[in-house]
Amino acid sequence: MNRPTDPLRQMQELTERLREAMALQRHRRAASARTWQPPMDLSATEDAYVIVLDVPGAAREDLEATAEEGIVRVRGEVNPPEDVRHLQRLRGERTLGRFSRSIRLPSDADTTNTSAALADGVLTITVARRSGSGRITIDIEE
Amino acid sequence: MRKTLTDPIEDFFELRDRLYRLLDESFESEQPETAPSFSPPVDILAGDEQVVMLVELPGMSREDVSVEVENGTVTIRGTREGNGDGEHYLRERPTGEFSRSFSLAWELDPDSVSAKLEEGVLRVTVARTERERTIEVTEATGDE
Fold this sequence. Notes:
The complex is a heterodimer.
Chain A: H1 7-33, E1 40-44, E2 48-54, E3 63-68, E4 71-78, E5 88-92, E6 97-104, E7 109-119, E8 122-129
Antiparallel strand pairs in A: 1-2, 2-8, 3-4, 4-6, 7-8
Chain B: H1 8-26, E1 42-46, E2 50-56, E3 65-70, E4 73-80, E5 87-91, E6 96-103, E7 114-118, E8 121-127
Antiparallel strand pairs in B: 1-2, 2-8, 3-4, 4-6, 7-8
């Protein structure tokens, strides 16, 4: 199975090289933009908006989340682990360094009522929704 | 070619897609399972005695991942579940099956493999069994 001429193996290796090249492209873009953007999910339940961000390798003390006037902003930094910094890097696909992401939530989001939790490299931010969607019925006089 | 102006990044993606399709078609009988749906980023770092791999697997638990070492090849496989509740407006975080395989230039000790998942990063450490050897050069002591 591990013969040098194994076509499956060659394909696998080519795929891995392509992936590496694509990662390099991402890094270049991140470098030119100075910060990179972590992938985000946004969902809504009846009483809250839930923002989920993948920030693997980010320590709690390197993260900052702010909420103001319907805009939630997350900033942070991912650093390589101290104990492997001296090792020779054979492949570097991970995007490291400073990241930033912000999102504007719909008008019923109450950005004064938020909570955030970091678990297993996933940051979850919950923003409460105002009950009744903040809707006021205006009486129309005859 | 559908595009008149070619974007090197687009070309790459297209090439990758074609490669996946080709892999699917060519090895369908050998690999009935579906092609990996995403590719977690990997860093590989080498020391004199060990190789360290850092794989980004945010939100995953140890049971969702398998690590295999065979003939100097390290394969990391797993499945990442999506998080489901509520109505989704934005869904950028990748989910599904993945498989990554790396052939390293050294002999690896399959019994030495250790894997640790921390802050959403899987750290795989494997010991190298073959270290650099110095070949002794002795002087020829021929009579000629």
